[in-house]
Amino acid sequence: MKILTVGLGYIGLPTAITFALHGQEVVGVDKNQYVVETLNDGKVHIEEPLLPEALEEVLIRKNFKAQMNIEPADVFIVAVPTPNCDDEYKGCDLTYVVDAVKSVVPHLETGNTVIIESTISPRTTEDVIKPMIEKAGFEVGKDIFLVHCPERVLPGQVLHELIFNNRIIGGVTPACTEKGKEIYDVFVQGKLIEATASAAELSKLMENTYRDVNIALANELVQIGAKLDIDALEVIDMANQHPRVNIHQPGPGVGGHCLAVDPYFIVAKAPEEAQLIQRARKVNSQMPNFIVEQAAKILEEHDGKIITVLGLAYKGNIDDMRESPAIPIVNQLRSMSGYEVRTYDPHVAEADTDTLLEALEDSDMALVLCDHDEFKTLPEEAVDVMKNRVLFDTKNCVVSDAPFKEHYTLGNISALKNVERV
Ligand code: SAJ
């Protein structure tokens, strides 16, 4: 089968290479010439374990090539970005998806399949993509098969999850779904779940929305605990002992290009109905303000001025800063007069100090915003150079027995005046 993937990013490239590793002829298309040239030179432009080795293999087998132009194929897979619109509800910007489909349509032949993998707002495949194919004179479900097949892989484990995760195959018609199953059966060992295209779209969005709403519940619980002088982390641990309770972990906010993005795609299509989803987004996007307030209270206790922010990435052990809550927190602290704010993150180039020692020298507070492994045990010699050995660990991840004078978490920030010294 000849497969052409449009978009060679963190989903399109691993998908293209996985099809090639499983014996298909694959053409990877991207409008970025640097990406195309880099790949054909055998180098990978995104950080994903095992991808470099997989690319080398398919180049040796000569069944993968990257190029900038579309050409005829049996299957066209669209895996391009869908950012938020800059509008009231931050809905789904379909520009890249529509442009990609527009570039594919002239090459369509009877019997071809078009698959949209990009995360898109509910009803996009039916109401936007299907008419584009029909306008070219094809009957969807008979001449051309149209499927939405959302990706559900965790960055850092993509090549494994592509094969072993269950996959939703959302066809515009049952014949489209059947065709989609045939195609993904090439490498998917998980279940191929049959669905309509619209249900597949909403299911993908709900996976991340479920997570965002539950994180908001935990973040709201932290604020309730601070008011009532009750340790929210202890409450979560105890509540989760119940076999059917899974309160998520609170933190400084919600980052990434999924949870901080996808819920808005639902809200934009049903703003009156999606009240809880909107409220959860508000709780999570306001969490950085709460963290700054608490940090300022702690600093006031110690007449502190120098803050060391540990962690700029949106989550632990990755280099991605998209929508990271550390960004508004650092900006707000820097806008407050009298503070010196330093940042350190071993995974992110944008940090302004290169070593933990340099970052903590004479510092009044270590503010942990990301649960990188490097922060779980902060070395004694790094803590010793601090002026005020105060730790505010918003990810509850520091297990170090370094001699912090005070160790705040999102559980014990209540009544800062008389908090127990750890
Ligand atoms: N976070 C919390 N508390 C938690 C869990 C996460 O504050 O209990 C924060 C993280 O610190 C981070 C953000 O939420 O800032 C997102 O974290 P994440 O672990 O959800 O990671 P993502 O966004 O990289 O991956 C999610 C995953 N979706 C689900 O788990 C339902 C992944 O499986 C998806 O493939 C990915 O979105 C996606 O591409 O949609």
TrEMBL record:
Residues 308-400 form the UDP-glucose/GDP-mannose dehydrogenase C-terminal domain. Pfam families: UDPG_MGDP_dh, UDPG_MGDP_dh_C, UDPG_MGDP_dh_N. It comes from the Bacteria. Keywords: NAD, Oxidoreductase. InterPro entries: 6-PGluconate_DH-like_C_sf, NAD(P)-bd_dom_sf, UDP-Glc/GDP-Man, UDP-Glc/GDP-Man_DH_C, UDP-Glc/GDP-Man_DH_C_sf, UDP-Glc/GDP-Man_DH_dimer, UDP-Glc/GDP-Man_DH_N, UDP_ManNAc/GlcNAc_DH. The keyword NAD applies. Belongs to the UDP-glucose/GDP-mannose dehydrogenase family. This is UDP-glucose dehydrogenase. It comes from Listeria floridensis FSL S10-1187. The lineage of its organism: Bacteria, Bacillati, Bacillota, Bacilli, Bacillales.
